[in-house]
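Hi support team,

I've been running sequence recovery on a batch of backbones for a student project. Most finish fine, but this one hangs at about 90% for roughly twenty minutes before it completes. I'm not sure whether the input is malformed or the queue is just slow. I've pasted the structure tokens below so you can try to reproduce it. Let me know if you need the job ID as well.

Thanks,
M.K.
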């Protein structure tokens, strides 16, 4: 399927982080996090190019050390999407889709990327993954964005709060009463759409929830969701790192 398209796989990586400075370079079982993410992406095969996009020389040096292609980007980007748009402009050429893989997803399943790529056939402007929620900790965590979608699988809204709200039902019974989905921050953009997204200004809902995808919805862009059965383990803080070590993943 991927061979039918010219696809850029871009891994944005920032050294600066409020909750976890230097996160892309943290050691995970003898390899930096960014290398593990890169290797997972590379395992899919068929990409036009796989590029690590960063504004940090330390990340550039480490990434080139394990053989990755690196493109230095501006330091004033507020999102990974904007960084991807700059890389696409630098690369040039006739690109069909750009896939944005967050650098703090070292355990992403290559199969999830395959699921996302399968959605290209729909010609959707933006594609992303969602997963059904099965536990209350995830359901009520404000650190896990939730999504609601329409009958066609198009996202209606994303929120850090639990959505939808189940009126008249005790929260302990919510999981048994409704199907909830969490959002997995993996995106694919049609190249023509990515150029336009990078020109949009921050929107009120985006600022309120601190979720960039709300900017796209507020400006009328369709985000097609694809349900995955694969779990992802992202690393947002040092506490997450310790949790992963206890799980025996590294």
């Amino acid at each position: 399927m991927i061979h039918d398209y010219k696809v850029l796989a871009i891994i944005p990586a920032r050294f600066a982080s409020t909750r976890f400075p230097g996160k892309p370079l943290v050691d995970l079982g003898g390899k930096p996090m960014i290398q593990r993410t890169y290797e997972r992406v590379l395992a899919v095969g068929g990409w036009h190019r796989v590029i690590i996009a960063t504004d940090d020389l330390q990340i550039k040096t480490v990434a080139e050390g394990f053989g990755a292609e690196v493109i230095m980007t501006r330091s004033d980007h507020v999102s990974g999407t904007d960084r991807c748009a700059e890389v696409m402009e630098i690369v040039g050429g006739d690109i069909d889709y750009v896939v944005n893989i967050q650098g703090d997803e070292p355990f992403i399943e290559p199969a999830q990327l395959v699921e996302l790529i399968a959605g290209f056939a729909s010609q959707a402007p933006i594609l992303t993954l969602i997963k059904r929620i099965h536990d209350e900790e995830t359901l009520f965590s404000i650190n896990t964005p939730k999504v609601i979608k329409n009958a066609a699988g198009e996202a209606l809204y994303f929120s850090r709060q639990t959505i939808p709200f189940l009126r008249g039902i005790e929260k302990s019974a919510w999981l048994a009463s409704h199907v909830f989905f969490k959002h997995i921050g993996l995106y694919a953009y049609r190249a023509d759409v990515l150029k336009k997204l990078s020109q949009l200004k921050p929107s009120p809902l985006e600022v309120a929830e601190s979720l960039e995808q709300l900017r796209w919805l507020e400006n009328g862009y369709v985000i097609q969701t694809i349900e995955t059965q694969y779990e992802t383990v992202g690393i947002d803080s040092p506490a997450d790192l310790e949790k992963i070590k206890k799980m025996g993943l590294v």
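--
Follow-up from support: It reproduced on our side and the slowdown came from queue contention, not your input. Residues 2-243 form a domain with the Spore Coat Polysaccharide Biosynthesis Protein SpsA; Chain A fold (CATH 3.90.550.10). No action needed from you.
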